[in-house]
Specification:
The protein has about 90 residues and is mainly alpha-helical. It has one domain. It contains 2 helices and no strands. The longest helix is centred in the C-terminal third of the chain and has 35 residues. It is rod-shaped. The relative contact order is 0.15.
């Protein structure tokens, strides 16, 4: 155990971190895909459908929202620790 942090708090933090890491990898992968597509956008070999871009946008937006939700869920732990420390 880390000083001032309970086992339950650590467990919750690790769960949150795993979830955020997965979302971050999704964002990185989609960002890489967009970068690759932008390099070949003028090519006759690649046609980019607007619906596909809208889907990528939705995936990025959902991943960002999921990270924000996880961080919001972690705030009560921080506030509880501050109360314990008299802050």
């Amino acid at each position: 155990m880390i000083d001032g942090i309970s086992t339950a708090q650590l467990h919750r933090y690790y769960q949150m971190r795993q979830h955020c890491d997965a979302e971050i990898e999704t964002i990185r992968g989609l960002s890489s895909l967009l970068s690759t597509l932008s390099k070949h956008a003028d090519s006759d070999r690649i046609a980019i459908e607007p619906e596909a871009l809208a889907h990528v946008h939705a995936l990025l937006s959902r991943s960002a929202s999921n990270i924000a939700e996880q961080l919001d869920a972690f705030i009560p732990l921080v506030e509880a620790r501050q109360r314990q420390e008299g802050g």
